[in-house]
Write a sequence for this structure.
């Protein structure tokens, strides 16, 4: 089989790749009939020469390849008819900006397998970048706090060679007054706690967090059971919550009076209650001064009203004035600092790509060769010019 690694075409800042040079080499060594070709790219986090030095061919024309691997949406002009593509298409929520992309995929009779739709038998996603978004998100939260307090300047993650370098700056940071609440227990939430643990910030239970008045750096992590409840109910049925989140109310309020940093890493959609309102943010007892919103849904369709726009890797922080509801200069006493970078794993593209490639190899690669794989069937959005059965609900969007 011939496999092509695509040059990312959506934005220059997308420097990640699905397989590293070493992973390509290992796969070729393992499978005798496999040949991997890499489209040249001046922007990719692994240079063309790094692939070549592992014996992988650089090739502009990938029309001989059956399977093409990208990361972000492939521009329509780069799509080759009748091939199998794997990438994040961002079409399953009927995103308007990718309607033409899906139309074109159908016209060109492309088989589209979307990484976001690849799940194991328990329904959990098998391949994602979320852990790295959490790792970088927590780094940026503490960086923002250091600058806000004027106490320290943490080197931005994207300026570090890799995560190992960033970790060398975590010793002896003056973090004494930090009270940080992490929302979410998935990839992002758990990635964030990796960074916080390395920084020596003490993890405590949600209950202790609300009661702790000592000037020591602490954090707590909240899952859905800590954040939502049904009115009049004392127990929490997680399965029921996922089925009917609209029947629940938020119990996040006490943390808005206790924490000074919030790292938001929990999934949210319009059925789920918001954590707090614009009005809540005006109150004197709203103590949160830094919000690292990794989930990064943009207001008004968001759980956090101050996430009024996404920010960028090079300019990650903006201020939010809770009285005027407007954007303001960052690091002002009367304002809240927002870190809302929506492509955080790109700050550590080499580490994130390697991890992603390992997940691809260990969970997806062998499935791709099985004609009856449930995982691949359920992850396939389009084939032979039609929507695959699980995605027929997209027909009106395509039309
Ligand atoms: N800013 C970025 O660069 C970036 C990168 C990756 C992911 N994200 C976003 O971060 C968020 C979390 O991603 P993740 O990888 O941790 O996801 P995940 O599936 O690993 O974890 C999701 C978390 O949200 C909770 N949750 C609450 N309601 C849910 C629901 N109805 N369905 C599913 N989960 C629900 C889960 O219990 C879990 O704690 C997502 O919104 C994702 O799009 C942002």
């Amino acid at each position: 089989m011939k496999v092509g690694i695509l040059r990312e075409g959506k934005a220059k800042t997308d420097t990640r790749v699905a397989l590293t040079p070493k992973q390509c080499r290992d796969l070729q060594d393992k499978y005798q009939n496999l040949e991997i070709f890499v489209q040249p790219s001046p922007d990719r986090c692994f240079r063309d020469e790094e692939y070549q030095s592992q014996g992988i061919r650089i090739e502009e024309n990938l029309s001989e390849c059956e399977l093409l691997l990208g990361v972000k949406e492939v521009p329509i002009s780069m799509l080759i008819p009748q091939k199998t593509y794997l990438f994040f298409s961002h079409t399953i929520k009927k995103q308007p900006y990718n309607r033409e992309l899906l139309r074109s995929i159908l016209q060109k009779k492309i088989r589209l397998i979307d990484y976001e739709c690849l799940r194991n038998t328990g329904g959990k996603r098998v391949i994602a970048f979320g852990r790295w978004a959490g790792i970088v998100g927590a780094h940026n939260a503490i960086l923002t706090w250091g600058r806000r307090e004027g106490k320290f300047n943490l080197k931005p993650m994207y300026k570090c060679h890799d995560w190992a370098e960033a970790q060398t700056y975590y010793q002896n940071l003056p973090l004494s007054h930090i009270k940080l609440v992490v929302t979410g227990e998935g990839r992002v939430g758990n990635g964030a706690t990796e960074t916080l643990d390395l920084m020596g910030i003490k993890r405590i239970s949600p209950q202790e967090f609300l009661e702790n008045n000592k000037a020591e750096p602490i954090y707590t992590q909240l899952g859905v059971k800590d954040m939502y409840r049904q009115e009049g109910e004392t127990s929490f049925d997680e399965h029921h919550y996922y089925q009917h989140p609209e029947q629940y109310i938020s119990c996040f309020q006490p943390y808005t009076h206790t924490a000074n940093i919030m790292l938001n890493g929990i999934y949210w959609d319009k059925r789920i209650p918001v954590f707090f309102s614009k009005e809540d943010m005006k109150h004197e007892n709203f103590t949160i001064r830094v919000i690292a919103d990794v989930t990064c849904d943009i207001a008004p369709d968001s759980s956090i009203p101050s996430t009024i726009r996404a920010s960028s890797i090079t300019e990650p922080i903006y201020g939010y004035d809770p009285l005027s509801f407007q954007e303001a200069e960052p690091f002002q006493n009367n304002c809240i600092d927002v870190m809302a970078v929506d492509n955080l794993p790109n700050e550590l593209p080499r580490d994130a790509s390697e991890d992603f490639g390992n997940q691809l190899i260990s969970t997806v690669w062998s499935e791709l060769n099985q004609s009856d794989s449930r995982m691949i069937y359920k992850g396939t959005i389009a084939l032979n010019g039609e929507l695959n059965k699980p995605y027929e609900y997209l027909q009106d969007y395509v039309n």
The chain has 14 helices and 18 strands. The longest strand covers residues 179-183. Residues 22 and 54 are 7 Å apart (CA to CA). The domain at 2-127+349-398 is CATH 3.40.50.720 (Rossmann fold).
